[in-house]
TrEMBL record:
One annotated GO biological process: transmembrane transport
GO cellular component, one term: plasma membrane
Coiled coil: none
Topological category with respect to the lipid bilayer: Multi-pass membrane protein
Source species, domain of life: Bacteria
Domain ABC transmembrane type-1, chain residue ranges per copy: 70-265
Protein name: Spermidine/putrescine transport system permease protein PotC
Organism of provenance: Nisaea acidiphila
Annotated localization: Cell inner membrane; Cell membrane
Function noted in UniProt: Required for the activity of the bacterial periplasmic transport system of putrescine and spermidine.
UniProt keyword annotations, A-Z: Cell inner membrane, Cell membrane, Membrane, Transmembrane, Transmembrane helix, Transport
Length: 274
């Protein structure tokens, strides 16, 4: 009887669940919907609707500062996602394709440490670290931002790659080793093709995280190195215009596109697991 009662239980039968759920979704998405709607406002007001128009998208597209910040953001995100994905793949292989050894749990915790530490702490640490290098070398280029973004993107790329490796059947790798394949041949012809969806998913997640970052970028960047999020933050400090809404909507669209691809890849991987 008790088992039958557990099977018939549904959380939707609890009083107030549906209104609370709807309220949570409204709190999460209503501000975003408002930004998207007012990005098409024909007038200068961010609160008074004055007709539908693509005016602010055209203004943002012709703004040279926006163009430079967009290109800089994409360059940093591409480099950071590439570097962090390579490091995360190596770390995932090292922590899943070796026998358990003393300190392996500590290494796992340290790789994921940036996820648990407040971002402002990481930003201050990177600021102090790179400031010392800038003083010693005199170089103040974009490499600091790329390295900083790569550092905090590693755990975001590591998690889906490790999950993919842990879910893989090792029979093919063992069979390749039995057929005298070298470790490199086994990795290149067996492991890499199987783990590729996890690597792509990790790279896309790292790209999105890097593209959206504000705090660490604000601390590490030098003068004239605004990315798109820090440019928008600077504009908001002066005045709120519908141009910011248009940039936000475009950035939101790109983020949704990449995250959708990420969830499709990870969801397909989960469906293939036995």
């Amino acid at each position: 009887m008790a088992e039958r009662a557990r099977k018939s239980f549904s959380v939707r039968q609890l009083p107030g669940v549906t209104p609370i759920t709807l309220a949570c979704f409204a709190a999460l998405y209503a501000p975003i919907v408002i930004i998207v709607i007012y990005s098409f406002n024909a007038g200068d007001s961010v609160a008074l609707w004055q007709g539908f128009s693509f005016r602010w998208y055209a203004i943002a597209a012709e703004n040279e500062l926006v163009q430079e910040a967009t290109i800089r953001s994409l360059v940093i995100a591409l480099w950071a996602s590439g570097i962090s994905t390579v490091l995360a793949t190596m770390a995932a292989l090292g922590t899943t394709r070796t026998a358990k050894f003393p300190g392996s749990t500590f290494i796992y915790v340290m790789i994921n440490q940036p996820l648990m530490v407040p971002e402002i702490v990481t930003a201050v640490a990177l600021l102090i670290f790179f400031a010392a290098i800038k003083v010693a070398t005199g170089y103040s280029g974009l490499a600091y931002l790329i390295l900083a973004h790569s550092a905090f993107c590693v755990p975001f790329a590591y998690l889906p790659i490790r999950a993919r490796l842990e879910g893989m059947d090792r029979t093919l790798e063992i069979a390749a080793a039995d057929l005298y394949a070298t470790p490199w041949q086994t990795f290149r012809r067996v492991t890499l093709p199987l783990v590729a969806p996890g690597i792509v998913a990790g790279a896309m997640l790292a790209f999105v995280i890097s593209l959206d970052d504000v705090i660490i970028t604000e601390f590490v960047k030098s003068a004239g190195q605004d990315t798109l999020p820090t440019y928008m933050l600077g504009q908001l400090r002066r005045a709120i215009t519908p141009e910011v809404n248009a940039i936000s909507t475009a950035l939101l669209g790109l983020t949704i596109l990449l995250l959708t691809a990420f969830f499709l890849l990870t969801g397909r991987n989960n469906d293939k697991k036995p």
